[in-house]
Design goal:
alpha+beta; FAD/NAD(P)-binding domain; D-Amino Acid Oxidase, Chain A, domain 2; Glutaredoxin; 3 domains; eight-stranded mixed beta sheet; six-stranded mixed beta sheet; 25 strands; about 25% strand; globular
């Protein structure tokens, strides 16, 4: 049972259904959202969307935003072209702008195509765990009480998660004193392009995300006086927010199509799992929207958990595999919250020192950093989430070349080595010549062995000649074995109690 039909819950339902699990997805709302706070679909999400043949359709429906600009004191100090920074790193070297409301409708249609409908106006009241299932009480569309049972329950139900409260998970963190505003607008001016711009000023900032090249876009900024906003984060009009940073970059808003304010929190739950209950997305972590990471992180949670649930439910893995969900995803969420907290604090802090950093240090430092190819690539990897790694997690082992167990498999554009990853199965990759005993081991396990030639592109990507890379169903490397040792691969498999092929355990 999936509680919550936002992008996180919908992706979890899609990935579980694709792997043969029956799912029930409920949502208290009457329909999908009509307002959209999440706009950015990062490259790593698009890579994972290839598994269900979603990526091309999402890219076609959205707007590939080609560059990031930093403005300080009315001048553009730096520009990083995503296509240059991400070239060779991913098939999707851009920031895709795809509003969440449209994104949700797209995922709902795909889920319906698999025979699963979202149960609307259906609210989770509570649940209790039994020996081999969860028994839940729901309130239906007419106010009727519904009893339901499921093997597992996934809380994708947002910051006020009923599932999180039910399992008594903590949600430590805090709330910023300032208040964010978001506005969908029609604008003109030097910054009103189909790119991303961030403008810094004295205790003021504004971020512009272009929807197209004709001046349509999203503005994000901070309300100067939080006293003008009620406890729910509602109140002022667009006319009431500071326009100083907008004016500095010549951004003139001609029409406001939608405007909202809300308070910004930074929290990570202390428990992603209790027994048969799991927390994902905003139910597990919330943070400032700096960098457009929130929705993508929730989708990453869903795909990380989905293959593990499917394996355990099918008897191909022990229950202990599910503990690796928290072990892998919580450290990433903590780092993300800490990073976005620092960025947001720097952009909105008041006082002379903060102004000095924004208006004096940033203009000197940013152009130097952006001229360095390695720095540009690193920033793209962080933003795109292609740098996310589980190398410190309990399921990861070894290193071959620059690739560690737990890392995302590097992309090699010349051969598109990510193409086989569209199958949600275990597989082995060898770049060079596979050993005969490795081929025999893969046949015994019932998994595919994909062989690629080794050349300059593979070496540049950090892969090692003739090494064996055991790839998980969620496309991360589980084991990077430099000598392609079958003994080491088999030891890892038996230690974790896994059946790698799709047959019965």
């Amino acid at each position: 049972m999936i509680v919550g039909a936002g992008p996180t819950g919908l992706v979890l339902a899609l990935w579980l259904t694709r792997q043969g699990m029956a799912v029930r997805i409920v949502d208290a709302a009457a329909g999908p959202g009509t307002e959209s706070r999440a706009m950015a679909v990062q490259a790593r999400t698009l890579e994972l969307y290839r598994q269900l043949d979603l990526a091309d359709a999402v890219v076609a429906a959205g707007f590939p935003n080609p560059a990031f600009n930093l403005w300080v004191g009315g001048r553009r100090r730096a520009r990083i072209a995503f296509g240059e920074a991400g070239a060779g790193i991913t098939p999707y070297p851009f920031l895709l702008v795809y509003p969440q409301d449209r994104h949700e409708r797209f995922l709902i249609e795909r889920l319906a195509g698999l025979g699963v409908e979202v149960e609307r106006r259906t609210e989770l009241l509570d649940f209790e765990e039994r020996d081999d299932h969860v028994a839940a009480r729901l309130r239906g569309p007419q106010g009727e009480e519904i009893r339901a049972e499921a093997a597992w329950i996934a809380g994708c139900d947002g910051a006020r998660s009923v599932v999180r409260h039910q399992i008594a998970a903590g949600f430590p963190g805090g709330t910023y004193s300032k208040v964010f505003y978001v506005a969908d607008v029609q604008a003109r001016g030097a910054a009103a392009t189909g790119e991303v711009s961030v403008a810094l000023d004295r205790a003021d900032f504004v971020a512009w995300i272009g929807y197209d090249k004709d001046g349509r876009g999203r503005l994000i900024g901070a309300v100067e006086e939080a006293d003008d906003v009620d406890e729910a984060g509602k109140a002022c009009r667009f006319e009431d927010v500071s326009h100083r940073a907008m004016t500095d970059i010549g951004l003139e808003v001609e029409r406001v199509n939608w405007f909202s304010t809300y308070r910004v929190h930074h929290r990570v739950t202390d428990r992603y799992r209790r027994g048969r209950a799991f927390l994902l997305g905003d139910a597990a972590h919330i943070h400032s929207p700096a960098g457009g990471q929130g929705m993508n992180t929730g989708i990453g949670d869903a795909i990380n958990l989905a293959w593990k649930l499917a394996a355990v439910q099918a008897g191909r893995a022990p229950d202990a595999l599910l503990d690796s969900y928290q072990a892998e995803r919580r450290p990433f969420a903590e780092r993300l919250v800490a990073t976005t907290d620092r960025v947001f604090t720097l952009a909105t802090a008041e006082g002379g020192f903060a102004d000095f950093v924004r208006l004096r240090i940033a203009p000197l430092f940013a152009p130097v950093v952006y001229r360095l190819e390695a720095a540009r690539q690193f920033m793209f990897r962080v933003l795109s989430q292609t740098l996310v790694s589980y190398s410190e997690g309990p399921m990861s082992q070894g290193r071959a070349g620059d690739v560690r167990g737990g890392d995302r498999l590097p992309f090699v554009a010349t051969v598109d080595n990510h193409a086989p990853l569209s199958a949600m199965v275990w597989q082995v990759h060898v770049y060079g010549a596979p050993r005969p005993d490795l081929e025999a081991w893969c046949r015994t396990q019932g998994i595919a062995l994909h062989r690629f030639d080794f050349g300059a592109a593979e070496a540049e990507a950090g892969l090692a000649r003739d090494a064996a890379y055991l790839i998980r169903p969620d496309t991360y490397v589980a084991v990077a074995e430099p000598d392609a040792s079958v003994a080491n691969l088999e030891d890892w498999r038996t230690r974790h109690g896994l059946t790698l092929g799709q047959g019965a355990a």
